[in-house]
Each structure stands twice: as C-alpha cells, then as structure tokens.
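To whoever is on call:

I kicked off a structure prediction for a single chain this morning and the downstream step that reads the tokens threw a length-mismatch warning. I double-checked the sequence; it's 143 residues and nothing unusual in it as far as I can see. Pasting both halves so you can look.
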Amino acid sequence: MPLRPARNLQIHHRTKDGIWILDLRGPLVIGDSETRLRAAIVALAEARTVKIVLNLAGVTEIDDDGLGALVFCYARIGEAGGALKLVHLTLDLSLMVLTKLDTVFEVFTDEQDAVNSFFPGRAVPRYDILKWIHAQNGPDLPQ
C-alpha cells in the first residue's frame, strides 16, 4: 500500500484596506490542517483582529472536519464581535448547499468585493432579479 502524501495546510496572512486576508493552500481535512486553521483564528480573535476574509482558492480538498473548522472559525470571530467572509470557494458548492452553510457564510467570488463588504459605503449593491422582473412588468401586468 503506497504512503499518502503529507497533508499540510499552509496559511499566509496579509492585509488589504485593514482587513486580514488568510490565503489557505492545501487540504482542509481532519488532523493538522484543520487544527492549524482553528489555532490561527483563535490567535486573531484574541488579538482583536476580527475582520477576516478566508481565501479558499488554494484549498485542494475539504472534508466534514474541514467544514466544521470553518463553522468554528465563523463562530469564534463572531463571539469576538467580528465577521468572517469566504472568497474563491472552488469546492463543490452543492456541499455548501446540502449542509446549509450558504445561509451562514457570506461567500464572494471577488476578493475586493469581500473586502468592500466590511465597509457599508463601499459594498457592491446586490440586485434581486425578481424585483427587477416585477419592475419591468409595470403596474398593469401580473406580478
């Protein structure tokens, strides 16, 4: 039986407009990788660094413990009075939908949009397509 390669999650910290961005690279699975992420988030929460974007573009795999770690991070930062957002979720979105995590996390496809979401004056307005359709129908047409 061949040996499995080491499962190491790398976490790189940077800031953009005062928002901490954690670039994750590698698998987010049971063991050291999810423990590393939890420890990084606890350290940031204790330092009162509570506006965080997790960049998941480099995450190669995620399991249920990895999802649990994301929920833990969200809750820990929330307890500290902050917010945690996700960007570049390249994993199967149906997993997020099945677990209803899409109702918990704000997920963005663009890093700048995720950063802007921390600043209400800069946030990109979201459009409701149904409202637009109803507006196009006019008052005489059925809604």
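Update from on-call: the warning came from a stale cache, not from the record. Cleared it. Sanity check on the structure: The chain has five helices and five strands.
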